[in-house]
C-alpha cells in the first residue's frame, strides 16, 4: 500500500465529506420544504437553495470520479452491488432537479403539487439513501472470493444500515434546518431554530442507537482497523460539534449551529473513513474477500499523474464555491429574485 | 435479459437523451455571451433582453442536462464494471476533472447569470457569461476527449492486464480528439442556434396573431434571430469540412468503420461516393444507390482513381453493424443539408435591410419551428454511427464491449429499472418541452 494510494483514500473521503456538508443542507432544506405548510415560508426555503444546489452536487461527482479513477474495483462493487438503492437515489436526485427548477415557473396548482412532492421525495430519498449506502459499506457486502454478491440482492436492508439511513435522514434535516434559519429573517428564524432542535433530538436518539449497535454490527471493523485513534478523534470532534449545535440552538444562534452541524457531518464521514481504513468495501463472508486500498488502487504512476490533476482541480472548485456563496450571501428573498 | 443488452440499452438511452441538453446549452451559452458582450459595449437595451431571455431558457436546459448527465457515471459502476476496471485510470480522472473544472464553473456562474443581474456589477456579469461559456465548453472538452480516447486510445500502458495512465496530455489530446471536438462543438452551436431561432419564430408568430405587439420585444426577437442565424449559417457551412476531416481520421485509425460508413464492400479503384441507398450487408451490396462516380476516391485522396479499401478486406467478425451505421451516417449528412438550407434562409430573411420584416414571413417562420429538429437528429445519428461503428469494441482495440459489462447484471430488477428509466425520461421530456415553452412564451 503506497503513500499515494493512502493520499487518494483521504482525498476521496474529503470530497465526499464536503459533499455531505454542502449538498446535505440543500437536501435537508428540501425535506423541510416538503413538510412546511406556510406558502410564503416555502417560497423562501426554495429561494435559499435554488442558486446553489447544482454547485453542491459537483462534489458528489468529483468524489465519485476520484473513487473511479483511484479505486475502480471499489467503485464498481459499490454501485453494482447496491444497484437498487443507488438507482432510487439517482431517480430522486433527478426528481429534485426538476422540482427545484420548475416549481417557480408555473401557476398550475396540480403541477405545483407535483413539483412540491418531487422536491420532498427528491430530497428525502437521497438523505436516507446516503446513510443506507454508508451503513452497508461499514457492515460490509456479502462478497465471495470472486467479488460477486452472494445471497439475496436485498442484503442492503440490514438493521444497522437501516439505522444509519434514518440517522442520516435526521442529520441532513437538522443541517438543512440550521441553514434555512441562517438564511431567514428574524421571525422565520425562530421557527426554523425550533425545527432544528426537534431534528437534533431525533438525530441524537438515532445516533445513540447506532453507536450502541456498532460494537456488535461493526465488530470486524473495530477488531481490524489500524486507525482507531483517528476514529476516536473524529468521534470526540463529532460530539463537540453536535453539543455545539445544541448550545447554539438554545442561544438562538443560527450561524453557529449551522457551522457546528457542518463539523458534526465532517466528523461522521471521518469516523466512517477511519473505521474502514485500509479497507474500501469489506466483505461479510471473510476478511480476505474485501476490497482494500491495496487490492483496488490504480498504479502509482496513474495515481501520481492524477494527483497533479487533482491539485489543480480541487482548489478551483473551492474557489468557484466561495465566489458563488459570496454572491448570494445574506437573507434569501422570495421568488421575485429570478427574472 | 442479457447483461450486455441491458447495459447497452441503459447507457445508450440515457446518453442519447442527455445529449439533447448539453448541445443546446453550448449554443445558448454562445448567444448569451455575444449578447452580453454587445450590451456591455454600450449596445442597446435589446441586447439585454436577448441575454435575459436566453439565460432563462438556458437555466432550465442546464438543469435538465445536469440531472440526466448525473446518471451516466453511475452507470459505469452499475453496468460497466469490466470497462471501469480496465479503463478507469483514463476515464476516472477526466470525469473528475470535468466536474471540478467545468461543471463547477458553469453551475456557479450560471447561478449569477440567472439570479444576480442586480447583485453584481456589469463587468462581473459579463465575466460570468464568459465563465459559463468556458465551463460548458470545458465540459464538452473532457467528455469528447474520453469519447475520442475510446476510439483512438493513447497515453497509456498495459500493466497486469489493466490500462494505466502514463501521459495525461497524450491521452487527452489523443489522435481523433481535436477534430472530433471541433465537429461536436460546431454541431452543438448549430443545434443551440436552431433551438433559439425556433423559439424566436414562435414568439414572432404568436405576437403577430393575438398579443399586443410590443415593438421593443419584437425588435429584440428579430435581432436575436439575426444573430442566431449568422451562427447557424457559418457553422453549417464549416461543418462539412470538419466532418470530412473527421472521416479522414476514421479512415486513418479505423478503416473498417470508414468502409462501413461509405458502404464500400469491395476494394476498388475510383470508388463512388454513395449519397443514398438501402444497405444490405448480408449480401454485401447497397440497393438503389444514388452515387457520384469516383467521388469517394476523390474525397479521400484527391485522386479520382485512387484505391479504396472495402469491407471485404477485413474479417467479418470485426465489421461493425454495417446497415445501421451506413444509414445513420447518411441520414446525418442529409439532415446537415436541411440545416444549411434553413440557416441560409433564416440569415437572408433576418439580416438588416431585408426587404420584408421578418415577422411577416409567416410561412418561413412556421417551417423554421420543426426544422429545429434537423440538427438534433443529425447529431444523434452522427453519435450513434460513431458508437455503433466502434463495435465490437468499447475501447477500440483494447476492451471488447462484451468484456466491458458487469457480469450478471441482467436480473429482473435491471430490466425493471431500464423500463422505469425510459418512463421517467418520457415524463421529463414532456416536462422539459412544456416548461421551456412556458418560459419562452414570456417573451424578450
Give an overview in words.
The complex is a heterodimer of chains A (339) and B (444). Chain A is 78% helix and 1% strand. Chain A is mainly α and 339 residues long. Chain A has a two-stranded antiparallel ribbon with strand order 1-2. The longest helix of chain A has 33 residues. Chain A is globular. Chain A starts with a helix and ends in a 12-residue tail after the last helix. Chain B has 444 residues and is mostly helical. In chain B, the strands form four sheets. In chain B, strands 1-2 form a two-stranded antiparallel sheet. A two-stranded antiparallel ribbon of chain B has the order 3-6. A two-stranded antiparallel ribbon of chain B has the order 4-5. Chain B has 14 helices and eight strands. In chain B, helix 1 packs antiparallel against helix 2, helix 1 runs antiparallel to helix 4 and helix 10 runs antiparallel to helix 12. Chain B has one domain. The interface between A and B is large, with 63 and 70 residues.
In short:
With 339 residues, chain A is mainly α.
Major sheet description of chain A:
2 strands, antiparallel
Low-confidence stretches of chain B: none
Distance between the termini of chain B: 50 Å
How many helices of chain B? The count is 14
Structural class of chain B: mainly alpha
The rounded Rg of chain B comes to 23 Å
Oligomer: heterodimer
Mean pLDDT of chain A: 90
User: What is the number of beta strands of chain A?
Assistant: 2
Q: What's the number of extended β-strand segments of chain B?
A: 8
Overall pLDDT confidence of chain B: 90
Q: Roughly how many Å apart are the termini of chain A?
A: 54 Å
